[in-house]
Amino acid sequence: MNKIEELERKSIGKLLMQYSIPTVLSLLVNSLYTVVDRIFIGNIPEVGALALTGVGRTMPIITLIIALAALISMGASTNISIKLGEGKKEEAENTAGNAITLSVILGFIITLLFLIFQNQILDWLGIQGEILFYAKEFITIVMLGTVFNILGFALPFIVRSDGNPTFSAVITITGCILNICLDALFIRVLHMGIKGAAIATVLAQFVTVVLGLSYFIKGHSSLGLTKVNFKLYPVTVKAMLLIGFVPFSNQLSISIAQVVSNYSLNLYGGELAIGAMTVISSIASLFLMPVYGIAQGCQPIIGFNYARKRYDRAMKTLMLAAVCSASILTAGTVIAWIFPEFTVGLFTHDSRLMDIAVTGIKKYTVLLPLATIPTFGSGFMMLTGKPKIAGLLNISRQSVILAFTIFLLPRAIGQDGLWLAQPITDLLTSVITIMLFIKMYAHILHKQSHHI
Fold first, then answer.
1. The pTM is what?
2. What is the C-alpha separation between 228 and 222, in angstroms, rounded?
3. What does the pLDDT read at residue 447?
């Protein structure tokens, strides 16, 4: 059975597993980069809580780098797949080469700008006092490796679009395992502190880049890259950036929300509240990454069947994916509520930070399963010819609704508003998503109701 027949005839459950599991594993491994760093940093003797807060303060910068990496990598990988599908191998090779060139150029520019305006950027983010030392020590080293960060993000996507998801996974997993080992070596054995965590991250990303480039250099790729492919072509770059703009916008909106969040956290909870949110968001990400993986995995199934007017299969895929994801997030909520001391204790043993984070995680995760609705609702809209509405919904969720909620809610109810801002945002965006979905797909929902 070829791919087209599979998408049209194979059971939805088997298809969903087939397409989702590799993506879920990839996203989980990528998430572990950040989570493992934070676990080691938070457990640095005597200064772990301050160091963890320093890292939390720099997250808007790191998220911005991820946004730029997504702009290139997702735009490039999609274009490569399209061009290969159309039999335009030369254009696919140009896209891959241009993505690598653009990653290098952008990485150097970002590093240079940061080094020039470092003090102004950290001051604008409100990083001052005792936290400044830890934040500066960590982010300076990470920013020196920006080229490896962006390339290390992009190359696995390009390798996957070349038709080798296995090697793509190997690249990512190798980088993650190396990061864990180096964290243990630099922090636990050599006692290098937060600087060791940053160096471990950069070295792991460097190895990821070496492995990714070796795939093309050693001729394993179906794309034969030569010097001419690395020359930037305006048409190729434009096509790449147009597709990558949506994931870039999503990440950028998260960065904006993080800036506002850190301001409110510091204002109403102090620096330790930022450290607590760093811990809470890390724990939540371990449950959210599988959901995002399922959301990406179901895209080709929904897109294909919707285009073929097989609305029953498209809707069935959406429902099954959403139910599976809601179950994962429900399990996450239960774990957060029953074992808060254990989950938070992985990151810190500081009693003050523990108390704040344990209280916060219960409130933060209370409506976590609702995150399924905007995630899959906007994804379905994106795949069915409504990208502007989907993009607007995604961007407004973080940079508008969450930013305003976390800014205003603590003014009304105090520190609890810091932790309840996310669940209230999920509730509001879920209601908006459901209303838009019913309005836009009423004709399909009506037909489906007659088949039940």
1. 0.84
2. 17
3. 65
